[in-house]
Amino acid sequence: MKDIIICDKGKVALSASDLWHLQDDDWFYDMKFKTAAEWREIQESELKTLCEEHYWIDVWSITGDLTSDDRELRIGQWRIVRADDKDKNGKVVRQVVFFSHFEKDYVRDMPVYKRGEDNSLVKITPGMKEHDDLFNVDEDEGWLFYLEDVPRIWNDLRQHRLMIDATDKLSSLFQTLDWQGRVARLIRRLIDERHYDDAVQTAACAASRFEREFLPGDNPFVAAYKRMRKVLSMNELYPLTNLIDGV
Amino acid sequence: MDNCVLVCDGPRVALTTRDRIHLDDSFWHKFVLDRRSFFWDTDFMLKNLASSLRWCDVTQVKVMHRYGDLLIRRENNVFIFDVMQGEVASTIAIFEWKDGQLFSVPIYSSIKCNLIFWEHLISYWSDAYKKAIYDLYGLDWEGWPYQMFTLARELFDSGNYEDAHDLLRCAIARAKIESDDELVSKLENLEQQLLER
Questions:
Q1: How far is CA A202 from the centre of its chain?
Q2: Within 10 A of A187 (CB to CB), how many other CB atoms are there?
Q3: Closest C-alpha among A169, A166, A182, A174 to residue A226
Q4: Which of A186, A204, A209 is facing B163, going by the closest CB pair?
């Protein structure tokens, strides 16, 4: 199902979110084993392939003349509508485009975008002078993605996978009710909230407490600490080495 | 008038006060309570401040211009800034306009007026923020102890009391392993303060 729009300046591609790996999927399982250098190459090549495989529509090439029927484009479940606002002298003062998505009897109207620099699509949000309470839709259901943001989203999803893997030695503690279980679950929660630095420092502190209360040397928190640091500093976790593997 | 500050941004100047541009320590104590808000809010604070100050473009001054309490006199490329107290003018600063920039000329003035360049304001804020953290907790803002203490406090404030306490016990263990007795004592004090709330 074509449920998202990818936007590159003034061009849009109607696509499916799973094709673009915009949520955590199996692709990231394979990617987590790649080194940072391999990952960079794969990312570039995947992005290039996806761009080539899609048909890109220049939204500003659609007429914005309010009297023309051609200002509306219907493609599958999507409708793209252009509109130009003119002043009393007929000079175009603003160009906007908006999208609607049809699913059976349900129509979702999306936020309105104006033409920005480099023909880019700039979302009209409350507070902007173009915003009209009666007409503009404020809610954003995460359906339009800027092409330039895609690598960042991929990096974030891969890094999250790696951070989860880095703490796998803590998983045996998750079910316990003592301080170790609570701190292990706290570390996992911090990772899920993307507070990676807090997670790393929490693991370091927990490693010290474990060492003082039980055994000096390596422990599950030390292993998690070392591995998370590797992920954050090198953008890779595998292959694991004895140096960071811990207990 | 001892509280006055002259802010310079390119050819623009604005006369204001230390508390108005948040150079007073007390303002920063509230940011210490939420370490993330400092980084989120400074952009807004700068924008709000820039739009609320009464700026005067000195290049537009021909000979003399009165701007609120500020009297600006021009002699060629030299600008003399006087603060008006009633009808009495006291010189607080002298600037030379050179290469599209104002350069201050050292003077003696009976009125204490700080000169602050707009681009340096964020650094002053950062220093004030760090000082506020140290004043309140005795911890440096960079480094794991402050990071762990604020995380513990966030956990405590959100009702995760056991997590907060566990985290502080872990932090104390780390300080002990690092043989930092002073830090152990500070963290134990902070733990006590948190538990007493």
A1: 26
A2: 27
A3: A166
A4: A186
**pTM reported for the whole predicted model:** 0.79
Q: To which residue do tokens 């599209």 refer?
A: B100
CA distance B131 to B26: 10
Q: Is A127 exposed, middle or buried (0-12, 13-18, 19+ CB in 10 A)?
A: exposed
Give tens-digit pLDDT for A129-185. 777 766 666 566 668 899 999 999 999 999 999 999 999 999 999 999 999 999 999
Quick check: A208 and B177 CB within 8 A?
A: yes
A interface test, pick of B147, B162, B166 with most A CB neighbours within 10 Å: B166
Residues of A in contact with B166 (CB under 8 A): 179, 182-183, 186
| SS3 labels along chain A | CCCEEEEECCEEEEECCCCCCCCCCHHHHHHCCCCHHHHHHHHHHHHHHHHHHCCCEEHHHCCCCCCCHHHEEEECCEEEEEEEEECCCCCEEEEEEEEEEEECCEEEEEEEEEECHHHCEEECCCCCCCCCCCCCCCCCCCCEEEHHHHHHHHHHHHHHHHHHHHCHHHHHHCCCCCHHHHHHHHHHHHHHCCCHHHHHHHHHHHHHHHHHHCCCCCCHHHHHHHHHHHHHHHCCCCCCCHHHHCC
Pick the residue of A170, A183, A185, A205 with the most B CBs within 10 A to test the interface with B by mutation: A205
Residue of B nearest to A186 (CA): B163
Question: Cα A157–A39–A202 angle (5° rounding)?
Answer: 45
B contacts of A211 (beta carbons < 8 Å)? 173, 177
A197 in contact with chain B, both atoms CB, cutoff 8 A:
yes
Contact in structure between A183 and B166 (CB atoms under 8 Å) = yes
What pLDDT, in 10s, does the model give residues B17-47? Answer: 888 898 877 778 777 766 666 666 777 888 8
Give B-chain residues touching A206 at CB under 8 angstroms. 170
